[in-house]
Design a protein that fits this description.
This protein is an alpha+beta fold and 366 residues long. The chain has eight helices and 18 strands. The protein has one domain: 4-Layer Sandwich (Chorismate synthase, AroC fold).
Length: 366
């Protein structure tokens, strides 16, 4: 239960953090669709551990293989199964914590729900599960670009703790600008300061969180539904399903509560023969349906739960104890590696809604 996402672009992830491997089953792609696995691998390379000293030292190549649904580079119409083996597993790192409820982790809640937890790592609650999402997102991006070549989905680290990028980048930021930064923040001055803070947190055995911003450009008006499947509602569910995510905003978000209606309304204008808005407080969605403007969202991520400091907790027998992790391989800040995860979830939502929108076109035109 709860391992599947989407209606027409249908995604199910599988696997645990220290099991044999992880992956995804994707259903809903048409037959004879040209699927580029190298592009999938590129996205997994952006997500993989061990990229720099700012991330976990776990060394995984995260090489993807296709087990079904693809032949000679084209889809067969059936489910696509993408698989990544877990190579650098160290379950012994968890020998000292198996009897402890780690603060901030899902140990207690998973045990309460299922009556059992993975003996090493977070199991399904581990961020390693997102490999399947990133792979599916890379496939979704190819489908989106086939349907709409002008579409672009770009995310970046907007802030780490109290350090934020210093300019509005919604219309100008590029993938190249993001990837030039080890933190994946396209503002070079802020990037340096963020990197210094993350290094300090790592040296202190602590962690830090922040905000990822994602913009979706070139999406036509008409995606989304007016009631339960509003585009922003599906985007919110997608982002809040990511490990460590704790907040979601679209458009003006919470800052819109400080505005009046006359200030917040995006007035309609005609520019270059196209109906558009003179502002974008709505974040590209009105009434649950895309309006053709840039879709702009923010996703808040908490500090990583695994830290190397003494904390109070209880063991599985209910005894109050002082707990300190002595070893392990963990990110001091999840944000740099979460950028491709946010893009992947956005791509999955947009691909699903594009297929739903396309399915209505013959009826709309008639």
């Amino acid at each position: 239960m709860g391992n599947t996402f989407g209606k027409l672009f249908h995604v199910t992830t599988f696997g645990e953090s220290h099991g044999p491997g992880v992956g995804v089953v994707i259903d809903g792609l048409p037959g004879s669709f040209p699927l580029d696995l190298e592009s999938v691998q590129l996205e997994l390379d952006r997500r993989r551990p061990g990229q720099s000293e700012l991330t976990t030292s776990r060394q995984e190549s995260d090489k993807v293989s296709c087990l079904s649904g693809l032949e000679n580079g084209r889809t067969l119409g059936g489910p696509i199964t993408l698989y990544v083996a877990n190579i650098d597993k160290k379950p012994q790192d968890y020998n000292d914590v198996n009897s402890v409820f780690r603060p901030g982790h899902a140990d207690f809640t998973m045990l309460t729900k299922y009556g059992v937890t993975a003996q090493s790592g977070g199991g399904r609650a581990s961020a390693r599960e997102t490999i399947g999402r990133v792979a599916a997102g890379a496939v979704a991006r190819q489908l989106i670009n086939a349907l709409n070549p002008d579409a672009a989905i770009i995310a970046w680290v907007h802030s780490v703790k109290d350090i934020s990028d210093s300019k509005s980048l919604d219309a100008s930021v590029t993938r190249e600008m993001v990837e030039q930064s080890e933190v994946r923040c396209p503002d070079s001055d802020s990037s340096r300061r963020m990197a210094a803070l993350i290094r300090q947190m790592k040296a202190d055995g602590d962690s830090v969180g922040g905000v990822i911003r994602c913009v979706i450009r070139g999406i036509p008006a008409g995606l989304g539904e007016p009631v339960f499947d509003k585009l922003e509602a599906d985007l919110a569910k997608a982002m809040m399903s990511l490990p460590a995510s704790k907040g979601f905003e679209i458009g003006s978000g919470f800052s819109g509560t400080h505005m009046t209606g006359s200030q917040h309304n995006d007035q309609m204008i005609k520019k270059n023969g196209k109906i558009c808005t003179n502002t974008n407080h709505a974040g590209g969605v009105a009434g649950g349906i895309s309006n053709g403007e840039i879709i702009a969202i923010n996703v808040a991520f908490k500090p990583v739960s695994t830290i190397f400091k003494s904390q109070s907790t209880v063991d599985r027998a209910g005894n109050e104890i002082t707990f300190k992790l002595e070893s392990g391989r963990h990110d001091p800040c999840v944000l740099p590696r979460a950028v491709p995860m946010v893009e992947a979830m956005a791509a999955m939502v947009i691909a699903d809604h594009m297929l739903r929108w396309k399915s209505l076109q013959p009826f709309i035109k008639s």
